[in-house]
Amino acid sequence: QVQLVESGGGLVLTGGCLKLSCAASGGTCSTYAMGWFRQAPGKEHEVVAVISRFGGGTAYADSVRGRSAISRDNAKKRVTLQMNNLNPEDTAVYFCAARSSTAIWELPTAADKYNYWGQGTQVTVSS
User: How would residue 26 be classed by pLDDT, with cut points 50, 70 and 90?
Assistant: First the structure.
């Protein structure tokens, strides 16, 4: 069983930045592909970024590509999402998710592929 706890959310002004962190416990971190998703009020879960088991591969949503970076430290069981140049459309609850994977390079972008989810952290971008 894997437990995920997100932190780092908050209120920022348009153009600001945030670094979200996800701390994992239980399981072996390197056996999981990891992803960040977000959910705005009235909307479905939306993938933000995903990273493969050992960090060799990453993928981003078009809406955040070029201004976001996902990384992981398996020894510390931590995944981070750096988001820059934030805008009000980035306002959402951000979730960390883990997918048990045998494929080193897998980059799952569908929410239903993930086995474990954190409780989420609120990000609010004010104009």
Answer: confident
